[in-house]
């Protein structure tokens, strides 16, 4: 619209720059932070308090572990002489299970190298015919199931020849010696050359330095034929060929079912050993051993015990290969296994490292719900929208809040690291401080970006609080019970781990896990933990995690900015999903006009003025609405709802325009379209020459708003509110201080120190006056006020009216009100809305003349004389109309052209006593009468 160019006067200031807006918001945030310094201090010190707690718990645990009852046990052993004296001897045999952990073991026991064999009732069977070659499932009932070795390879004949030597038949003399010496773990070659099987037991062995009863009692010898075992416990064993390793994996892994091992009828398929000879040839043994240690309720549940049995499976395969090549007499004995000697030690439990990443993950993520709720609170209370409507752009808002939360996060993390290192927590002291800081710094940036992203998804602070803490605790628990298993299981694909690390909580957990592991190894070895050079280690996942978090940080920031514009975020118009392409596909929405202005010449004249302004430039008009419409689509077969119908309106600078109408008439909808809360269905609107569909951000810099409900910070004073919004209007220095004091005086908040009290302590009327002062501060060209005097006492209302009258001299003001007195006192023109349409427009005198045209005669007297009073009125005018009658009180409307006021006064005086008139009055039409007449027609 050409008429959009508005000339600046000397009293007007240019729009506040990015730095000015950022400075205003930063000052406000610092003041707000100063008000709640105790809460902030406790939050920052919280990691330190946790570190002190951990330090105290570690000291208590160390003190408990150093008690004499936890040291290596000792006994007084009598001497072999007649003195009766005894010698104090210490060691494992004199200690309890707990004391034995600290004892020296100079000569660990020799443990036979056995192969784990399931009990007969749990051995693999041909269940449902899916596992050919295995025993019939009915063998479980009698406990006679054979144990099966599976094998495959690239050369079957060579594999058959090798496995034929896997379990050689022992000589009778060897079997006879076994009956007497196996119970003592004999290392006779004749025994060690055969495969001993340790069968299942329910006992779990915590440390491999102690022999297990199962190794001495539940042993067997594996033979293909147990007929001539000569009384030695024997397990019949078969060799079954499979055509591929996939079939073997199916038998070992897919056949395993987690079920109740006590029931012999359950679908349990346990298999443990299989061989893949791959490209084995006469010159090369190329072997893969498959081993399933999932057997429930037995020694296999302990890792050390399982390792004792793996060696035997490798030995018998290598031994059979040599026998196949060199002859049956070839021997490859594996007599026993034993641990390395151990010195006496102390019982040490590093409490902080045992807590692991889960605890530190919760501590680090504690700021996430705090930041999220802070941002959502401003959105829910519409404080951000209030700031935006007074000129705060999205750029300064995001920048200052980001820097503010980042500084707070860095301070939080520094306190955590300093306190943790100061009190000696290995998690912090063992690892490089620079690596830790970089990791935490990157994650804090990602966490802030994630909070900004969450702000676009939540509308209520309470919901954001619940979801924020659920995310913190949920991601921590999942990371502890899921992520760690993925990392420690070498069979899990690295791609799966990478996919899980995409979730920021899991990425944090992975980094903390690496710190914990390096600190644990460094602490036990007396060395440093993680250094920068360790990032090159293939098994170190920190480098990958840092890369993921950096990429996600950028993505989350971009996505947060995008969703902030396309989601109903409470901070302005919701834009289309492809708004960034609108400049290439600009379309103007058109809706057919359904108005008839002929019967309303004042409305038609206003429309003609607007049409003239389309082509003629005129800087005196601050607000122009050109055929503005808002239509809500009907649902469930209902017709469309026309909230605003063809609003054409032109308001000059220096004019106060009042919008009157019943509830639901479209007043608030019209204002919401002008201030950027709603998108018009069609039509255009210009504020200070700027199009609301294109230049809303610029319009905010020249606009002031007093919303219907007070949007204030309870922690800020009235003066601080005005200083903040004054800076957004580019007021500085002495001009700012003068404007603030003038505003406080105009709304009667300057005296008695009221302006320096927190807004949270204000009464409803004081908050209302402060909201009006905020809307008027600065040099706004357009001001919107929604029922500004609601809740004010008469004296305060008069003070507020005077302030508005002074302010309208150089700006356009639109206000809505239900007070006809307020409209007459403030408004140069008023418009009455009915059913979304402007029914009339003009100053109050014109409207009363145009829509009134009558006198109102009110009389109170003897009820029995009512008819005579009515006859007297009709003598004055045949067009007189009775509009009210109750208990002797009557009200008549008399056309002004039919009666003279002098006659009314003369004849009422003459007939007063005869008609029993007690009181009477003759008034002109009021604005309220006009309003009622227009609204009800």
Automatic annotation (TrEMBL):
<dbReference type="InterPro" id="IPR003439">
    <property type="entry name" value="ABC_transporter-like_ATP-bd"/>
</dbReference>
<dbReference type="GO" id="GO:0140359">
    <property type="term" value="F:ABC-type transporter activity"/>
</dbReference>
<dbReference type="GO" id="GO:0005524">
    <property type="term" value="F:ATP binding"/>
</dbReference>
<feature type="transmembrane region" description="Helical">
    <location>
        <begin position="437"/>
        <end position="462"/>
    </location>
</feature>
<dbReference type="InterPro" id="IPR026082">
    <property type="entry name" value="ABCA"/>
</dbReference>
<comment type="similarity">
    <text>Belongs to the ABC transporter superfamily. ABCA family. CPR flippase (TC 3.A.1.211) subfamily.</text>
</comment>
<dbReference type="InterPro" id="IPR013525">
    <property type="entry name" value="ABC2_TM"/>
</dbReference>
<feature type="transmembrane region" description="Helical">
    <location>
        <begin position="37"/>
        <end position="57"/>
    </location>
</feature>
<keyword id="KW-1133">Transmembrane helix</keyword>
<feature type="transmembrane region" description="Helical">
    <location>
        <begin position="347"/>
        <end position="377"/>
    </location>
</feature>
<feature type="transmembrane region" description="Helical">
    <location>
        <begin position="397"/>
        <end position="425"/>
    </location>
</feature>
<feature type="domain" description="ABC transporter">
    <location>
        <begin position="623"/>
        <end position="860"/>
    </location>
</feature>
<dbReference type="GO" id="GO:0006869">
    <property type="term" value="P:lipid transport"/>
</dbReference>
<dbReference type="GO" id="GO:0016020">
    <property type="term" value="C:membrane"/>
</dbReference>
<dbReference type="Pfam" id="PF24526">
    <property type="entry name" value="ABCA12_C"/>
</dbReference>
<keyword id="KW-0547">Nucleotide-binding</keyword>
<feature type="transmembrane region" description="Helical">
    <location>
        <begin position="468"/>
        <end position="487"/>
    </location>
</feature>
<dbReference type="GO" id="GO:0005319">
    <property type="term" value="F:lipid transporter activity"/>
</dbReference>
<keyword id="KW-0812">Transmembrane</keyword>
<protein>
    <submittedName>
        <fullName>ATP-binding cassette transporter</fullName>
    </submittedName>
</protein>
<dbReference type="InterPro" id="IPR017871">
    <property type="entry name" value="ABC_transporter-like_CS"/>
</dbReference>
<dbReference type="GO" id="GO:0016887">
    <property type="term" value="F:ATP hydrolysis activity"/>
</dbReference>
<keyword id="KW-0067">ATP-binding</keyword>
<dbReference type="InterPro" id="IPR027417">
    <property type="entry name" value="P-loop_NTPase"/>
</dbReference>
<keyword id="KW-0472">Membrane</keyword>
<dbReference type="Pfam" id="PF00005">
    <property type="entry name" value="ABC_tran"/>
</dbReference>
<dbReference type="Pfam" id="PF12698">
    <property type="entry name" value="ABC2_membrane_3"/>
</dbReference>
<dbReference type="GO" id="GO:0042626">
    <property type="term" value="F:ATPase-coupled transmembrane transporter activity"/>
</dbReference>
<dbReference type="InterPro" id="IPR003593">
    <property type="entry name" value="AAA+_ATPase"/>
</dbReference>
């Amino acid at each position: 619209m050409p008429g959009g160019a508005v000339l600046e006067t000397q009293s007007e200031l240019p729009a506040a720059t990015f730095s000015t807006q950022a400075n205003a918001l930063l000052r406000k945030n610092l003041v707000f932070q100063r008000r709640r310094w105790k809460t902030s201090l406790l939050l920052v010190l919280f990691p330190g308090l946790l570190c002190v707690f951990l330090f105290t718990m570690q000291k208590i645990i160390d003190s408990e572990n150093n008690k004499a009852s936890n040291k290596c046990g000792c006994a007084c052993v009598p001497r072999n002489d007649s003195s009766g004296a005894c010698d104090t001897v210490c060691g494992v045999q004199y200690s309890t299970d707990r004391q034995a952990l600290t004892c020296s073991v100079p000569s660990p026991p020799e443990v036979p190298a056995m192969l784990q064999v399931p009990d007969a009732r749990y051995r693999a069977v041909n269940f449902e015919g899916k596992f050919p070659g295995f025993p019939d499932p009915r063998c479980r009932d009698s406990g006679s199931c054979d144990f099966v070795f599976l094998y495959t390879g690239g050369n079957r004949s060579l594999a058959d020849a090798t496995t034929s030597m896997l379990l050689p038949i022992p000589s009778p003399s060897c079997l006879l010696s076994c009956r007497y010496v196996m119970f003592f773990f004999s290392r006779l070659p004749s025994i060690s050359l055969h495969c001993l099987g340790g069968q299942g037991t329910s006992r779990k062995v915590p440390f491999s330095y102690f022999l297990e009863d199962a190794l001495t009692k539940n042993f067997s010898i594996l033979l293909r034929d147990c007929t001539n075992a000569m009384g030695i416990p024997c397990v019949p064993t078969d060799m079954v060929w499979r055509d591929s390793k996939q079939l073997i994996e199916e038998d070992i892994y897919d056949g395993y079912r987690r079920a109740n091992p006590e029931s012999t009828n359950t679908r349990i398929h346990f298999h443990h050993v299989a061989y893949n000879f791959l490209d084995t040839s006469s010159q090369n043994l190329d072997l893969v051993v498959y081993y399933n240690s999932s057997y429930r309720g037995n020694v296999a549940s302990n890792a050390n015990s399982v390792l004792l049995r793996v060696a035997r499976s490798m030995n018998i395969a290598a031994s059979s290969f040599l026998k196949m090549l060199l002859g049956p007499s070839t021997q490859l004995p594996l007599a026993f296994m034993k641990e390395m000697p151990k010195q006496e030690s102390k019982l040490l439990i590093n409490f902080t490292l045992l807590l692991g990443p889960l605890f530190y993950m919760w501590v680090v993520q504690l700021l996430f719900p705090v930041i999220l709720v802070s941002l959502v609170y401003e959105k829910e209370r519409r404080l951000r929208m209030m700031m935006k409507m007074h000129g705060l752009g999205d750029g300064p808002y995001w920048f200052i809040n980001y820097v503010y939360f980042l500084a707070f996060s860095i301070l939080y993390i520094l306190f955590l690291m300093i306190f943790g290192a100061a009190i000696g927590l290995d998690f912090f002291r063992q690892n490089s401080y620079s690596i830790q800081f970089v990791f935490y710094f990157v994650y804090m940036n990602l966490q802030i970006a994630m909070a900004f992203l969450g702000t676009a998804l939540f509308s209520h602070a309470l919901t954001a609080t619940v979801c924020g803490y659920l995310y913190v605790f949920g991601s921590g628990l999942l990371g502890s019970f899921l992520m760690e298993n993925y990392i420690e299981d070498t069979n899990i694909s690295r791609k799966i781990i990478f996919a899980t690390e995409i979730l920021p909580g899991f990425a944090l957990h992975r980094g903390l896990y690496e710190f914990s592991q390096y600190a644990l190894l460094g602490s036990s070895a007396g060395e440093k933990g993680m250094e920068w050079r360790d990032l090159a280690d293939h098994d170190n996942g920190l480098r990958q995690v840092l890369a993921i978090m950096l990429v996600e940080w950028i993505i989350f920031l971009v996505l947060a900015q995008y969703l902030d514009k396309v989601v109903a975020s409470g901070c302005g118009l919701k834009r289309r999903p492809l708004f960034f392409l609108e400049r290439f596909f600009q379309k103007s929405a058109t809706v057919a006009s359904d108005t008839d202005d002929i019967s309303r010449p004042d409305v038609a004249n206003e429309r003609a003025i607007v049409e003239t302004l389309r082509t003629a430039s005129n800087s005196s008009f601050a607000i122009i609405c050109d055929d503005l419409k808002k239509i809500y689509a009907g649902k469930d077969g209902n017709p469309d709802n026309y909230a605003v119908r063809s609003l054409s309106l032109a308001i000059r600078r220096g004019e106060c325009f009042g919008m009157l109408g019943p509830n639901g008439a479209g007043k608030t909808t019209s204002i919401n379209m002008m201030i950027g809360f709603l998108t018009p269905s069609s039509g255009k609107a210009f504020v200070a020459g700027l199009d609301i569909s294109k230049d809303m951000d610029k319009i905010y810099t020249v606009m002031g708003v007093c919303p219907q409900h007070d949007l204030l910070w309870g922690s800020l004073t009235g003066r601080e509110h005005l200083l903040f919004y004054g800076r957004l209007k580019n007021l500085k220095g002495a001009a700012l201080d003068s404007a603030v004091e003038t505003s406080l005086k105009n709304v009667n908040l300057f005296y008695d120190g009221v302006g320096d009290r927190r807004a949270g302590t204000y009464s409803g009327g004081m908050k209302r006056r402060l909201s009006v002062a905020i809307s008027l501060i600065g040099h706004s060209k357009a001001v919107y006020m929604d029922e500004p005097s609601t809740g004010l006492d008469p004296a305060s209302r008069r003070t507020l009216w005077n302030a508005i009258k002074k302010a309208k001299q150089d700006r356009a003001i639109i206000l809505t009100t239900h007070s006809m007195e307020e409209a007459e006192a403030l408004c140069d023109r008023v418009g009455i809305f009915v059913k979304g349409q402007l029914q009339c427009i003009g100053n109050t005198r014109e409207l009363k003349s145009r829509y009134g045209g009558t006198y109102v005669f009110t009389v109170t007297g003897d009820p029995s004389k009512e008819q005579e009073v009515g006859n007297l009125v009709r003598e004055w005018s045949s067009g007189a109309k009775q509009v009210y009658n109750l208990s002797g009180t009557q009200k008549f409307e008399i056309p002004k052209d039919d009666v003279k006021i002098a006659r009314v006064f003369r004849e009422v005086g003459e007939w007063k006593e005869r008609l029993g008139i007690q009181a009477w009055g003759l008034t002109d039409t009021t604005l309220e009468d006009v309003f009622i007449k227009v609204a009800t027609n």
